UniProtKB/TrEMBL annotation:
It comes from Artemisia annua (Sweet wormwood). The keyword rRNA-binding does not apply. This is HXXXD-type acyl-transferase family protein. Keywords: Acyltransferase, Transferase. It comes from the Eukaryota. InterPro entries: CAT-like_dom_sf (IPR023213). Belongs to the plant acyltransferase family. GO terms for molecular function: acyltransferase activity.
């Protein structure tokens, strides 16, 4: 049986102290939208050059030194949670754990046990998440018997979305590798989206708790390779949809499968609500660069009523239509004097969702470059977000979309009710285009 044992713990402090005038980092109003679990990523690196135990230990030292230098640039990430409005940039540093596991990396990757993946994380994902006084950044490096390693990073969702996590990882990996191009963060979000009180946090917490549900949750990896995605897109194009994206067609198909599973369980078709996390960095014409740190995201929503058409092309249109509303004009309103009203109206359909059995949430971590993170010994063989469900309500009704190794497929981590998951995994339309829990080694 696989066993992960922690062999050391420490805090990695920034290489230079944070100036006094930067000791308090205020969060933006958009940071209030998201619950406060940690945003996790796990990257798996094979021991391609047959490094010795001594060389693996040297790699650990390089990781620590480069992390220290990176934290100086990303100084809020070296602090602790002060309260719901701010980060204490006190240079406590990042929690850094080293662990060993009693198996080889290739053996683990043959058929990864999704129930055990959280043991590679430095902290347990949960709805309550990061609390006051806890470290913003947490790292665990797990060493396999073969010398391969898993590098996991959990940053508080109070300050980091997937885009910010990716930026930090690029900067850390580049520093470790010795890249001449140093990645610096853009820390302007709090000034662009200031917050004066906690009205949005209080409002959205009620919304989230009504959408996520209790129950026996199951997690499945549903993988769409490039050829099957091309066929799925072609099917949608043949029905009149122009240039569908990977994310649109996968989201629509999984939404359709969930509605079919719910109908099978209840005996009747019910209204269904979908939400999709939208990266605002790509929707803004202003100063939101790719390296802007914070939760630069918004929720788009689409509804499928009992009378609505549920052909795949119809659902693709609904997904596209909902996301297209989060545009540059919406961004201007979000930064204007009436942003409170704009936010409330935009979230109204989610807040009005009464039957959480018919809600499905998506977030996409595609095109974020996780497979490009080279610390000096090659790129990862597999990347996953962790957060495998253990009956916690936070991950029910939720789908995380990841790139496959070469960026042309999609790996969907689907967390659903036990009965509905069984129906989804046996849906003939889904199985025509996807594989259920394939080995990551098959996707190389």
């Amino acid at each position: 049986m696989m066993s992960v044992k922690i062999i050391s713990k420490e805090n990695i402090k920034p290489s230079s102290p944070t100036p006094h005038h930067l000791k308090l980092y205020k969060l933006s109003i958009l940071d209030q939208l998201i619950p406060a679990p940690y945003a996790p990523i796990i990257l798996y690196y094979p021991n391609q050059d047959h490094a010795s135990d001594h060389e693996v230990q040297e790699r650990l030292n390089v990781l620590k030194d480069s992390l220290s230098n990176t934290l100086t640039r990303f100084y809020p990430f070296a602090g602790t949670i002060k309260d719901d409005l701010s980060i204490d940039c006190n240079d406590v540093g990042a929690y850094f754990a080293v662990a060993r596991v009693n198996t080889r990396l290739d053996e683990f990757l043959k058929y990864p046990d999704l129930e055990l993946i959280n043991h590679f994380l430095p902290c347990e994902p949960s709805f309550s998440g990061s609390s006051e006084g806890s470290c913003v950044s947490n790292v665990q490096v797990t060493i396999f018997e073969c010398g391969g390693i898993a590098i996991s990073l959990c940053i508080s969702h109070k300050i980091s979305d997937g885009g910010a996590l990716s930026t930090f990882l690029k900067s850390w990996a580049g520093t470790s590798y010795g890249s001449k191009e140093v990645v610096y963060p853009n820390l302007s979000a709090p000034s662009l989206f200031p917050v004066n009180d906690l009205w949005l946090k209080d409002s959205t917490m009620v919304m989230w708790r009504s959408l996520f549900k209790m129950g026996k949750c199951r997690t499945a990896r549903i993988v769409f390779d490039s050829s099957k995605l091309a066929a799925l897109k072609a099917d949608v194009v043949a029905n009149g949809i122009k240039d569908p994206t990977r994310v649109e067609v996968v989201s629509a198909l999984l939404w359709k499968c969930v509605m079919d599973a719910t109908e099978e369980k209840s005996g009747s078709r019910k209204p269904s609500l979908l939400s999709h996390v939208v990266n605002l960095r790509k929707r803004s014409l202003s100063t939101l660069s790719e390296n802007t740190i914070g939760n630069l995201i918004w929720l788009a929503s689409a509804e499928c009523k009992t009378s609505s058409k549920t052909q795949l092309c119809d659902l693709v249109e609904k997904v596209r239509g909902s996301v297209s509303k989060i545009n540059s004009e919406f961004m201007k309103k979000l930064q204007g004097e009436k942003r409170t009203k704009v936010m409330e109206e935009s979230l109204k359909s989610l807040k009005d969702c009464k039957d959480n059995n018919n809600y499905l949430g998506f977030t996409s971590m595609c095109k974020m470059g996780f497979y490009e993170a080279d610390f000096g010994w090659g790129k990862p063989i597999w990347a996953c977000g962790g957060g495998v469900c253990h009956g916690s309500p936070v991950f029910m009704n939720f789908v995380v979309l990841m790139d496959t190794k070469y960026g042309d497929g999609i790996e969907a981590w689907v967390n659903m009710d036990e009965h509905e998951m069984h129906a989804i995994k046996h849906n003939p339309e889904l199985l025509e285009f996807a594989s259920i829990d394939p080995s990551p080694l098959q996707m190389i």
